[in-house]
Amino acid sequence: MAEEKIIISYNGKSSECPVTIGTENEAAMDIANLRDDTGLVTLDFGYKNTGATKSAITFLDGELGILRYRGYEIADLAEKSNFTEVAYLLLYGELPTKIQLDEFNSKLQANSDVPAEVAAILKAMPKGTHPMAQLTAATITLSGVYTKDVSKATDETIINVLAKFPVLVAMVMRNYEGLDFIPNDKSLDYVSNFLNMAFGKKASPVITEAMDKLLILHADHEQNCSTSAVRMVGSSNANIYASICGGIAALWGPLHGGANQAVLEQLEQIEKDGGDTSKFVAMAKDKASGFRLMGFGHRVYKNFDPRAKIIKKSTDDVLSDLNINDKKLKIAMELEQAALHDSYFVDRKLYPNVDFYSGIIYNAIGFPTDVFTTLFALGRIPGWVSQWKEMKENKEPIGRPRQIYTGATVRPYSEIGSR
Ligand code: CMC
Description:
By secondary structure, this protein is mainly α. It folds into three domains: 5-66, no CATH class; 74-257 and 372-393, Citrate Synthase, domain 1, CATH 1.10.580; 259-365, CATH 1.10.230.10. The protein has helices at 34-38, 74-80, 83-92, 98-110, 116-124, 131-142, 155-176, 190-199, 205-218, 225-235, 240-252, 259-272, 277-285, 306-321, 327-341, 343-347, 354-365, 372-393, and strands spanning 2-10, 13-21, 27-29, 58-61, 66-69, 72-73. Helix 5 runs antiparallel to helix 6 (131-142), helix 7 (155-176) runs parallel beside helix 8 and helix 12 packs across helix 15. The mean pLDDT is 95. Carboxymethyl coenzyme *A binds at residues 46, 221, 224, 255-257, 259, 284, 292-299, 348, 350, 353-355. Residues 46, 221, 224, 255-257, 259, 284, 292-299, 348, 350, 353-355 line the site of carboxymethyl coenzyme *A (CMC).
């Protein structure tokens, strides 16, 4: 919906930039013709203020701390829905009827077996290979088996990825721990089967529910780093497995999904050091230290991360169900309180984010720290696939940003002897 125009003038030339308004009244200046009209490109390191696409999937207001999937509040979905229903909602835009959800779940179960080659590839990887590297290898292996139409957003392709992903994540964890794989049990639901394949035993209802909730909370987050990577790779018509691998690689970094692993390692470090949180808060404020409090701050949220609020409650439920009195939780609470009252964090609007608490639950459930980010990937898979599907359906062009060149200008080649 273009409502008005902004005129940009440069060097005697001008460009009319239409304003596009979204359904939540976000406004964007469309600069598609700016370079042709005036020679100007835009420059925005880290895409801090660049809209790369129009999307109808997730709405996020970082100032107000709002997160909605397809218009539904994250708190409502976390309380009332379940992960596969949320996956359906993200993919197809509407909550399913009972018949649609049953059919969707049946398709996920029916397509969940992974080829034997995946196990062989995982076993061939060097011992101790990070689970995110293993997950990338397992995912790309599927592209050697399922080659039909996998660069097209067909239902078959999409279901195939979603169905197999929990099986891959569980296998990666078992392989990382040097344990035998547990067979895929198609009689179990999505989350129960994942937990059964990861631990080789049935999880309690409290743990299954907490896991389901965590997956819902991670399911999508509009144009974050890994999702942008998925869309970017997919925009070249690379197949769905290659596109998802782009997302896994981007998610691995500690500034993004890898923060859940980094948070727990940091809490352990503080615990080992005697538990004095004030020392670590002071370090985080000291720029020369290069130290950051992991699990704090967010590119978009300048308010409490709504996901963190929900996870905090789940953390209490899981720890009390398992009768765990975790010192790390006490340290986490102290850090949270220190940060919420310290002017360094208050002025910069650095609140606890989704990764701050998730690691404590994963740890309590029994996941090794190094696999935490694969669990984020398991939650994010419906988001990645939905965004990939949307990009395909919108026939978006290949992603290819511009740059401002700052290197040497043209100069003659000098022979090696004269350098
Ligand atoms: N500890 C201490 N200072 C911080 C932190 C932190 N965790 N995060 C940001 N700052 C400071 C930063 O030094 C800067 O200060 P100044 O204005 O004085 O230079 C200011 O806050 C703004 O930070 P920024 O790095 O410019 O902000 P950004 O939007 O580029 O980065 C972030 C966002 C998430 C990468 C960053 O806050 C961070 O590194 N947090 C720790 C890692 C983390 O928890 N990541 C998970 C994010 S949530 C999961 C997901 O969706 O990815």
